[in-house]
Amino acid sequence: LAQAFGMRVVAHDPFIDREYAAEHGIGVLELPQLLAESDFVSLHLFLSPETHHLLDAKAFALMKPSAFVINTARGGIVDEEALADALASGRLAGAAMDTVQTEPLPPDSPLRSFDNVLVTAHIGAATVESRARSGMTAARSVVTVLRGERSEHTVNPEYAEPADRARPREAQRR
Fold first, then answer.
1. pLDDT at 170
2. Between 145 and 61, whose confidence is greater?
3. 30 among known catalytic residues
4. DSSP labels, 36-99
5. What's the domain range around 54?
6. Is 24 an active-site residue?
7. Which of 24, 30, 103, 161 is catalytic?
8. H or E stretch including 118?
9. Are 97 and 12 members of one domain?
10. What percent of the chain has pLDDT over 70?
11. Cis peptide bond prior to 65, omega within 30° of 0
12. Bridge pairing between strands 68-71 and 40-43
């Protein structure tokens, strides 16, 4: 989408298919170089011990003072204290946070004091299309289970029993 606006798109991902990236006009950079060159850093990754506080004071120091951080991934990837310090000192232009470490954002969070920070309630993916797809997926799962089958979206399949085997026959007739 960013390319449609004439933006150069770069990525850092240790697992990226470099051939795919090249075919789609995406440059692959090491994280320090990406942070130093980017005007917008948009996070799309999972939270793990390796990604916890991936964007910390050291990372913000590498970024342009005109840069913006966008976190639509997971709270905890951005060190919010370091982000507040970078914003207060002018080392960063702004941030959009669809997710924060503690949701909802605590009333005493320093991020609330900045005019150049937008915090949303983890709804960045809540488009009309995604909500419709989620609703249909849930409805199909309910119908599948009511048929006595296992839903493909079962979280713990090793503990799940189809509905017709989970209850005695008498209970099913009521």
1. 52
2. 61
3. no
4. HH-SEEEE-----TTTTTSB-HHHHHHS-TT-EEEE-S-TTSB-HHHHHHHHHTTSS-EEEES-
5. 2-119
6. no
7. 103
8. strand 117-119
9. yes
10. 91
11. no
12. parallel
